Amino acid sequence: MEWDEVSLNGTLCANASYLQHEYGISMTLTFNKWTIINETVSARNPPPICIGENIVDLEIEVCLHIYDIDIDIETNKFHACFEVLGRIMKLKFSKIKLGCVNTSLYEGVRCIENNIIHQLSNFKSVKAEQKMKAESTINSGAHNGITLDFILLLLSLHSFVLLYKILVTRTI
């Protein structure tokens, strides 16, 4: 590759590979001996999905990370794990593991949360399923589908932002 306007002369190499087991791709881009890009994107372990705001020039995000995704078409099974991440200026400061879910279309739903396993069967009565869901909610520390850890994460983010605003307004 030559570009006379910026005195650029060297070898640019690109490589992209399909990763069958990871359901993803790997890509590298090098210039001479320097690596410019070396990234792997996987559907089995995708990057977190984040929402956030720039509050007083401070980027704060809450992210949902879905990982360890496995789809077995032969046995009709699906597995995925979930965690919530708190990040300030792209730096992770908190991680809350929510648990994993294993599903099968005909065998029921199996939730693994905080090392507690509950089996919900499609063949049980609705009343039994409601009882199991209530027990799962109590045992995992959840309230209306939101874990206590997640609420504490949001409160700590809010407190941090307020503290930052106070410090910034005092120094101005």
TrEMBL record:
Pfam families: DUF4773. Residues 4-103 form the DUF4773 domain. Keywords: Membrane, Transmembrane, Transmembrane helix. The keyword Transmembrane applies. The chain crosses the membrane at residues 146-167. This is DUF4773 domain-containing protein.
